[in-house]
Amino acid sequence: MALPRRQRVAAYAVIVRDERILLCKLAPWITPTEQWTLPGGGLDHGEDPRDAVIREISEETGLDAFVGEQARVYSAHQARVRRDGRRSDYHALRIVYDAWVAPDAPQPRVVEVDGSTVATAWHPLADVLDGTIPTVPLVQQALADWAPYRMQRVGAYALVTRGDPRDGDVLLVRFSAKGFHTGSWSLPGGGIDHGERPANALVREVEEECGMTPDVGELLLVHDEHFSGTAPSGRYEDFHAVALVFAARIDADAVPKVVEVDGTTDLVEWVPRREITDGSRPVLDVVHAALQAGERRRV
């Protein structure tokens, strides 16, 4: 006799943060051996897939997730033993999204009682890829197609100095826990909004980060940096930063202070240049490049 047919549509998410992936451990009634899968589950009748995956992530991990627009679809067709012991001709359609949670999200915990998930945890991505963590085939399929979200950002930044050009102070800002490169120092500035003139963006950013209004001078250099990491949103990104660095002037007696609350800057200071050159102050490469460009400009 032909087996009864059953088709199921489910939505899942790949959630990666700081080289770790969020997975859910399947209940023993689904698999007698330890198996981990992506957070997600079946769609209710009439439910949007994105709404379904957000709901399932909340039930299985206790976390509020943000889900991207793009998805990949995987199909699995096999004979399967149902929970009641009956066999079926089973066809599963799995919609897999890229998703992320806030950087300050709590530790995951299973909320739904008596569901298909008995545990949830962040696992090293390398351990999942090499099979150290036992997973269902969907995890490896999804990771083979997954790549960090590609983000390119153009920003305007200021090289502001005071005192001796070769041994004076440089105005720098420190990245907070909400930004890339937490604890490192860089030039004041930030992203250019759509349609915004770079010089206007620079004035706005310096006012937010330093509480001072700069006089913007000439463009010193265009600097870029390419890296991957967890963005302030919590999304894991393949990030390309393009920085337009301008010479700028600010009153040497001005006392800088951070104006924007809960942003990516938590401190601003006039930093002695020797702390930059001797490495005692951790700074990004763009600071060294800007200082070199400033020296070439004076020659």
Keywords:
single chain; 299 residues; alpha+beta; Nucleoside Triphosphate Pyrophosphohydrolase; 2 domains; seven-stranded mixed beta sheet; four-stranded mixed beta sheet; 6 helices; 15 strands; 43% strand; NUDIX_hydrolase_dom; NUDIX_hydrolase_CS
- CATH-defined topology of the largest domain: Nucleoside Triphosphate Pyrophosphohydrolase
CATH architecture designation of the largest domain: Alpha-Beta Complex
Overall radius of gyration: 25 Å
Derived structural class: alpha+beta
Sheet bearing the most strands, described?
A: 7 strands, mixed
Helix content bin: 10-25%
CATH superfamily of the largest domain: Nucleoside Triphosphate Pyrophosphohydrolase
Structurally, how many domains make up the residues? 2
Q: Total strand count, please?
A: 15
Low-confidence regions: none
Mean pLDDT: 93
Overall geometry: elongated
How much of the residues is beta strand, in percent? Answer: 35-45%
Note the gap between the termini.
89 Å
Give a quick summary of the entry:
Helices cover 20% and strands 43% of the residues.
What does this protein structure show overall?
With 299 residues, the protein is α+β, with helices and mostly antiparallel strands. The chain folds into two domains: 5-145, Nucleoside Triphosphate Pyrophosphohydrolase (Alpha-Beta Complex); 149-298, Nucleoside Triphosphate Pyrophosphohydrolase (Alpha-Beta Complex), CATH 3.90.79. It contains six helices and 15 strands. It has helices at 49-61, 125-129, 137-145, 198-210, 273-277, 285-298; strands spanning 5-17, 20-26, 36-37, 40-42, 65-81, 87-101, 117-124, 149-159, 161-162, 169-175, 185-186, 189-191, 215-230, 236-249, 265-272. The strands form three sheets. Strands 1, 2, 3, 4, 5, 6 and 7 form a seven-stranded mixed sheet that branches. Strands 12-8-14-13 form a four-stranded mixed sheet. Strands 9, 10, 11 and 15 form a four-stranded antiparallel sheet that branches. A hairpin with a 5-residue loop joins strand 13 (215-230) and strand 14 (236-249). The longest helix is centred in the last third of the chain and has 14 residues, at 285-298. The chain is elongated. The termini are far apart. The model has no long low-confidence stretch (mean pLDDT 93). Belongs to the Nudix hydrolase family. Keywords: Hydrolase.
